């Protein structure tokens, strides 16, 4: 993507963001998950209140990956790089797998957090995430 498509020497913020997000998306799960599997997993939970983390992790192929590959996925989902996946990041969980994916509903987000937050601190740490994916 050319950032200055009209050669005005002015960077369009929208084009900059699109370029940035397309690069992030390509980097995020590249080499870890097959694009076709991710698309199928996203399609399987496109309707509101249809998300099941177990079904999603199996469909996208993450459940079959090594602990190290699951940890790599964790650090992509942990967008603020805090070392934890917080509730607001879980709400946007599907969007980390594909641009244009829907947000999780409040009920889906709370259920997902409850399933993964073993120690009750309101966040999912890397080890909790690996356990959740491999369950």
TrEMBL record:
The keyword Transport does not apply. PROSITE patterns: EF_HAND_1 (PS00018), EF_HAND_2 (PS50222). Gene3D superfamilies: EF-hand. GO terms for cellular component: cytoplasm. GO terms for molecular function: calcium ion binding. Residues 65-100 form the EF-hand domain. Keywords: Acetylation, Calcium, Metal-binding, Muscle protein, Repeat. The keyword Metal-binding applies. Ca(2+) binds at residues 78, 80, 82, 84, 89, 117, 119, 121, 128. CDD domains: EFh_parvalbumin_beta. It comes from the Eukaryota. In muscle, parvalbumin is thought to be involved in relaxation after contraction. It binds two calcium ions. PANTHER family: PARVALBUMIN, PARVALBUMIN ALPHA. Belongs to the parvalbumin family. This is Parvalbumin. It comes from Gadus morhua (Atlantic cod). The gene is LOC115537300.
């Amino acid at each position: 993507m050319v950032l200055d498509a009209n050669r005005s020497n002015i960077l369009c913020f929208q084009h900059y963001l699109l370029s940035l997000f397309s690069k992030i998306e390509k980097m995020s799960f590249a080499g870890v998950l097959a694009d076709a599997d991710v698309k199928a997993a996203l399609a399987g939970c496109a309707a509101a209140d249809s998300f099941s983390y177990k079904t999603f992790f199996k469909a996208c192929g993450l459940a079959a990956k090594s602990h190290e590959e699951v940890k790599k996925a964790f650090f992509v989902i942990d967008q603020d790089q805090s070392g934890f996946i917080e509730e607001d990041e879980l709400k946007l969980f599907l969007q980390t797998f594909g641009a244009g994916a829907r947000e999780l509903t409040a009920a889906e987000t709370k259920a997902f957090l409850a399933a993964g937050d073993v120690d009750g601190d309101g966040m999912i740490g890397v080890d909790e995430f690996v356990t959740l994916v491999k369950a």
